[in-house]
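DOMAIN: structural biology
WANTED: fold as tokens
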Amino acid sequence: MGSLDGRIVLITGAGRGIGREEALFFAAEGAKVVVNDPGVGPDGSGGDPAVTAAVVAEITALGGEAVASADSVTDPDGARRMVDLAVETFGDLHAVVNNAGTLRNRALVGMTDDDFDDILAVKLKGTFTVTRWAARHWRARHEAGARESRAVINTSSGSGLANPLPTQTSYAAANAGVAAMTVVAALELGRYGVRVNCIAPSTIRTRLTAGVPGMPAVPADGGFDPAHPAACAPVAAYLASDGCPLTGQVISVRGTAVTVNRRWSPVARIAKEGAPWEVAELAGELERLPLEDPFEILAASFGAALGPDAGAAIQKMIEDALDGAA
């Protein structure tokens, strides 16, 4: 018996990386899977339907059930077709894993409107659009008396939640938005029996993380690889399972470390009674509070991997990005 026996799941961005590993794992756990991916490059360019066909072939060769979808999450009609494909092929839809994402590393001063908009169109709006069509299906099923367990698993990133990586203004903004959207959707969709959670992978080796400083190399001895994209699959599968009670949670995944997050948590506060603040007063009060330095956050995240010269390596990464900006 698998943990996902009888579950019908749509996984976006499932042609490669984390999404592919999730599709294979879900199928091995008994799920029927809609493998969605237009087969684009890391920056969203191009497209190849053979990418999803290959994943479906892997699943069926192992005795699983899957169907391919090459629609883009940026196309509202395409998002609707993904949901319809699950229902028409397998009879229903129990869970959606919003994994699709693209990346263009650009310094802010060299970033174009398209660089910003295109990344948000996939990661942030794509998550919204697919979830919306799934939610409309689930609302109709709930109103018809169905009470199956439903789930949405969104995918954010350490970039946007914990690690302020330079050159990733659009990617970080999109991922932070996905995390915020998760909490709101959990509040709204609970009425229809839908749980909504989010995983935030960090230091996972994919096409999008190839240039991240300190990314661990593949173990030479063929041993356990904590940076392999398969690390996320069991967490996503649990969140998609029938008996999972969690909703509204943002969970970081780094190798076998699974961490529950608490959004933006207040740290320190100042207050004044009876009159508005004056600028000079604020200068004296705010500057004494325990403020975080973004550079120190980044150095702490990657320092162990980069060694004693972590600060210099990170500073060089920032300067190289700025020097290469148009």
